[in-house]
Design a protein that fits this description.
single chain, about 230 residues, mainly alpha, Serine Threonine Protein Phosphatase 5, Tetratricopeptide repeat, 2 domains, about 65% helix
């Protein structure tokens, strides 16, 4: 039950200063990595981007194939990021991608990629609710996202984006010790897996810095305002 007068989690700045751009890029790369390793997207830029019509035809041809639906959602989201796209069309594409992600998870409820996709969807929904000042809904969506990401992590512990997402959601839920633990796990998997060979040390150092900042915050240290933001992913 939410205490009377509860105004929602403290602003991100109460936990840490804004994230350095380098770490934002590093964790964003982890998000791209999870799409590739879990079977959607690739580490390289595709040679072409199929039209939305072609993407939708693939869905019609294989409506019960979770991989096809996830791939279609990925392509549609990429399309929604194009510049000069009308807001109404952007919103339509994002809504369609969300629909496909949810259907993919319904078809394969234990698929770690589908779990991660919908966890990301709940994360975004929670952010939007927080921006409206609806903290009850925000915390509910973030909690749902955390549980889905945790289920994905139980199956695939070799994908850095999953512990990064868990760390991010834990911070938003003000579970700082848990967040620090997941940042440590993120650093461990980046060190162990050969996913970011050119920038591995940067990923590790930034995650470890974030973890230290959170642990200082837990201990009440005046130096706790160093590190990164929870808005990286």
């Amino acid at each position: 039950m939410t205490p009377e007068g509860y105004q929602g989690p403290r602003p991100v700045e109460a936990a840490a200063r804004p994230l350095r751009p380098l770490f934002a890029s590093a964790v964003a790369c982890a998000a791209i990595g999870v799409a590739a390793v879990l079977g959607v997207g690739a580490y390289y830029k595709p040679p072409y981007a199929p039209s939305i019509e072609k993407v939708e035809r693939s869905v019609v041809s294989s409506p019960h194939d979770a991989r096809v639906l996830r791939t279609a959602a990925y392509r549609i989201l990429m399309k929604s990021n194009e510049e000069r796209l009308p807001d109404s069309e952007r919103q339509r594409l994002v809504a369609r991608a969300s629909e496909l992600r949810l259907e993919a998870l319904r078809i394969e409820p234990d698929n770690p990629g589908a779990l991660y996709d919908v966890a990301s969807l709940h994360n975004s929904d929670g952010d939007e609710a927080a921006e409206r000042g609806d903290w009850v809904t925000a915390r509910a969506r973030w909690s749902e996202g955390f549980e889905l990401a945790r289920k994905a992590y139980a199956t695939r512990q070799d994908i850095p984006a999953i512990p990064a997402r868990l760390a991010q959601l834990s911070e938003k839920l003000e579970e700082f010790e848990r967040a620090a633990d997941y940042w440590d796990r993120y650093a461990e998997v980046v060190e162990r897996e050969e996913i970011f060979p050119a920038s591995r040390r940067t990923h590790i150092e930034m995650a470890e810095s974030r973890s230290r900042a959170l642990r200082k915050k837990i201990a009440g240290s005046p130096d706790a305002a160093v590190g990164g933001s929870v808005e990286a992913l």
